[in-house]
From TrEMBL:
Coiled coil: none annotated. It comes from Entamoeba nuttalli. This is Ras guanine nucleotide exchange factor. Residues 181-308 form the N-terminal Ras-GEF domain. Keywords: Guanine-nucleotide releasing factor. It comes from the Eukaryota. Residues 122-150 are annotated as: Disordered. Residues 124-148 have a biased composition (Polar residues).
Length: 602
């Protein structure tokens, strides 16, 4: 396989690196090496088929054979291994399952690529010659006729001259990525960028998708639609024959504008509540209907169904059994840590899904008026902070060593469950709470944990380490199959880094390579937003979580921690001797009793 061959038929997108690649070479690389030839990430033919179908996959972990499960470093297609912290809480045959259903987004992406690439098929088919004044007919790949204006009746848009710009460095510059000869826009005027990405010469259809997610950094939806309406009817070059104009400019331009506008409607449906944008779409529908009735109907259908792809996180509701409150267990301990992890994940997923794409632009969450600029992002951050405070409060409020040790076990188990079901934001929040001063200083309570639980916590800390910009956490998030909730902190950091690390413009040209990077990040986020978890809502658990009174003041938390467990001066704590021997025995018996009773609930 050579890179030249890779670029010859770029029709298939790798689900890992999201690059548009040669289908033949991608398939060959998978069969021979089990990976994408471009990004080298493990890949299977089934994943490619799933991507095309946009079908539903159910990933189910059987805890009865947990030793046979793949390790933590398992690649895509394997289920995260469930540790010994979770297995004892499950009744025989019980399993955690989560669904991956990104059919709407997958179908949308596939539709975009199909329409975008179809312009090449249409321009590759010969157009019958015609004499001046006769209509010209072309057969597209579906066999349906596309009718075009007579040359004598064709009228370019009155402002079409704004797109009559030469392809020179004054208006557009290009770059290339390693291993590829495809032109990638680096800097350009907006008009020249639009002209290029809708032309037959543009091989970078992936950029067009990224552009849709990030164009609001440089213009508005209203202005963009106006430009596309102008571009729909360009000037015919003086030295170009009519048939060549139809084949090389009109067909690819109008086909790619249609694909771009349809994706624009899907990504930002709320923008089309505005009257001026509705009028622009109606104008485009009229233009397409006159040009090709089926394309007009296609755009009309997308516009009519613009709110039809909204994802419902969960449909079914069911209460789950809780432990009765008694002298031993009360508060959050009455809820299984697995149920807590699942319900907290659903709450966080609903918050994550609610974030519109344009809130990820312009770093509004860093500004003073962030609650007005990015209310949904702020809400998700607040939810993560609340989870941190829930963990801290529930641990430091426990009056005995045994109960504090049990509470530590509880939240370590919840964090491990979140890792398994791929709620990385929730997992990171719990680990942050467990590492906070008020909790981490509880040396005796920590020492009473079983070694297996300590090992699980050590692994979670390793995953959540901030070293090298969360390297380990990023590795796991990158190979996670949706449904998943990314750690929102690193996601927002990436957007800031991509934005601040590149100049916005130079010499009246915009940095479209920067927009490509930002658009790629937002596209990845939206893909994760479109996939739901299969857990049912448990109203009784959610009501309890929402009603928890937390202590958010770090000084108060620290004072409570000191009150219930004074500072230990010993370097090594011997639980086999006084004064901890009795408490250690009590902690062991309490954990055993708790596991037995929780397992009976499931």
């Amino acid at each position: 396989m050579t890179e030249q061959r890779h670029m010859c038929i770029a029709t298939t997108m790798c689900p890992k690196c999201r690059e548009l690649l040669c289908e033949e070479c991608l398939m060959k690389g998978i069969k021979e090496n089990g990976c994408c030839y471009k990004c080298k990430q493990p890949l299977t033919l089934e994943e490619i088929k799933l991507k095309r179908r946009g079908s539903t996959m159910i990933h189910t972990t059987d805890f009865s054979n947990s030793d046979k499960l793949p390790p933590l470093s398992a690649k895509i297609g394997n289920i995260p291994k469930v540790s010994s912290a979770i297995s004892p809480l499950l009744s025989p045959g019980r399993s955690l399952s989560f669904s991956s259903n990104d059919s709407s987004l997958a179908a949308s992406e596939d539709s975009f690529l199909l329409e975008y690439k179809s312009s090449e098929k249409k321009t590759n088919s010969s157009i019958p010659s015609s004499s001046y004044g006769e209509s010209v007919e072309s057969q597209n790949s579906t066999g349906k006729s596309s009718w075009f204006e007579n040359e004598k009746d064709y009228s370019p848009h009155s402002n079409a001259n704004m797109f009559d710009l030469p392809t020179t460095d004054e208006y557009i510059t290009f770059t290339k990525e390693s291993g590829s000869n495809a032109k990638i826009i680096q800097y350009a005027t907006l008009e020249k960028c639009l002209q290029f990405i809708t032309s037959k010469n543009c091989e970078d259809s992936y950029f067009t998708q990224c552009f849709v997610y990030s164009f609001k950094l440089i213009t508005t939806t209203t202005k963009l639609l106006k430009l596309l309406i102008i571009l729909f009817s360009p000037n015919k070059p003086i030295d170009m024959l009519w048939n060549d104009f139809i084949q090389n400019i009109i067909i690819p331009t109008r086909t790619r504008i249609l694909a771009l506008v349809k994706m624009l409607i899907q990504v930002f449906p709320n923008d089309f509540k505005e009257e001026q944008n509705q009028e622009a779409i109606n104008d485009l529908i009229q233009l397409y209907t006159t040009y090709n009735k089926s394309m007009g109907l296609n755009l009309q259908k997308s516009f009519d169904n613009r709110f039809g792809l909204k994802m419902e996180c969960v449909i079914l509701k069911r209460n789950v059994p809780l432990l009765p409150v008694d002298d031993k267990f009360s508060g959050i301990l009455c809820i299984s840590p697995l149920d807590f992890a699942e319900q907290m994940t659903l709450i966080q997923m609903e918050s994550f899904v609610a974030i519109p794409s344009d809130e990820f632009l312009n770093q509004g969450w860093t500004k003073k008026n962030k609650e007005q600029l990015t209310p949904h992002i702020v809400n998700m951050i607040k939810l993560s902070n609340k989870l941190i405070h829930i963990v801290q409060t529930e641990i430091v409020m426990q009056p005995t060593y045994a109960l504090r040790s049990l509470a530590l076990f509880y939240f370590i188990t919840a964090a491990e469950t979140m890792r398994t079901i791929q709620n990385f934001d929730g997992m990171k929040a719990i680990v942050t709470a467990l590492q906070s001063v008020s909790v981490f200083r509880l040396k005796v309570s920590w020492e009473m944990l079983q070694q297996s639980t300590k090992s699980i916590f050590t692994n979670l800390v390793h995953i959540c380490s901030e070293d090298n910009n969360f390297t380990e956490l990023r590795k796991i998030m990158n190979i996670a199959i949706p449904p998943t909730i990314p750690f929102i902190g690193s996601t927002l950091t990436d957007l800031i880094y991509t934005s601040d690390g590149n100049k916005a413009s130079t010499n009246n040209k915009f940095n479209f390579y920067k927009l490509r990077g930002i658009g790629n990040l937002i596209k990845e986020i939206q893909m994760k937003q479109k996939t739901s978890f299969s857990f049912n809502i448990a109203p009784n658990v959610r009501d309890f979580i929402n009603s928890i009174q937390v202590i958010s003041n770090e000084d108060q938390l620290f004072n409570l921690s000191q009150k219930h467990e004074p500072k230990v001066t010993e370097k090594f704590i011997d639980l086999t001797k006084k004064p901890y021997k009795h408490d250690a025995k009590e902690a062991k018996e309490l954990l055993k009793s708790y596991l037995k009773r929780i397992k009976q609930l499931r």
